[in-house]
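In this notebook, the sequence line spells out the residues, with the fold written below as integer tokens. This is how one looks.
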Amino acid sequence: MSPTLARRSFALAGAAALAAVAFSAPSFAQLVREPAAVQAGTYKVEPNHTRVLFAVNHMGFSTWYGNFTHASGGLTLDPAKPEASSLSVTVPTASVETTNTVLDGELKSADWLDAAKYPTVSFKSSKVTLTGPGQADVAGELTLHGVTKPVVLHAKFNGAGVNPLDKAYTVGFEVSGKIKRSDFGVTKYVPLIGDDVDMIISAAFEKQAG
């Protein structure tokens, strides 16, 4: 085979391979960005892509980050009456994770979150107040370390549409808030380790049949 023919054969083979990938790969999700166009109904937390992140000041030198996973819960949503929406989310306390396995064990211990005694952290909404296009304040009760306190979370609508992988109609939000851990009885090393805890919840919900 001549060099020219070989190059052409190689190019054709490459093009065929790219075409095969293009036809086999799922297409991008067609997202709805307008909250009013979201499908009304009952949604369930999609745990594989929902994460509760937290950040605390570490002795003034740095910010330390961690997260909770394996969330469960639900969302009732009606874009025609967004103020009537309701939300409940629960995460296992023992799912707490940082980049340090020793610290992970400490956080689960009785000195900190006491996962054995208080196996879950939960939030249940009581009021939704629209604050702008695709944004709302969600007031509710947070239960952490056996203590329940009112908190307000700030929710931003990301988008909604059919997930091209599992074909489930999905809606997503970015949620943020701040608490003082001492309010919930988690006082270890305050104020050496920050009392203020910043939270970011990346939340995905899948629409349920019926």
About this structure: The chain has one domain: 33-207.
